[in-house]
Amino acid sequence: xxxxxxxxxxxxxxxxxxxxxxxxxxxxxxxxxxxxxxxxxxxxxxxxxxxxxxxxxxxxxxxxxxxxxxxxxxxxxxxxxxxxxxxxxxxxxxxxxxxxxxxxxxxxxxxxxxxxxxxxxxxxxxxxxxxxxxxxxxxxxxxxxxxxxxxxxxxxxxxxxxxxxxxxxxxxxxx
Length: 175
Hints:
The chain has six helices and no strands. By secondary structure, it is an all-alpha fold.
């Protein structure tokens, strides 16, 4: 009964369009379509060779299963576990600010911290101690800042579906 009441309240205040936008099925569909659009656009711009700003582990060499696991695993770790932890931690630290400012600054802090951790995990774990700066920039900006922002804008289903779909599309479109 409480679920029905909550659903009715959300429908009244948020509208059908807003509710549909935030359902997991819609998030997943839009995430997959976004991944397809991005990879097809990159392919159209640079051809069938994997651009050097895209890390080699994105290629078909590791295999599709590895790519899917990386997409799911990284997103669960960074977006489902760490992002809310950093967000609510920052929100608590910013008690002197107004609610809107606390939310905005907490989101920025969570995005930045998870982006830094994403880069450290990949750079320390995959490059034998050698830092490849163009990959640091790519990893910080795309999976870190861009996908972290998309998490807050569209939800976790979108980001998980997009990331996993990218791991399928890149090997299909590039050598």
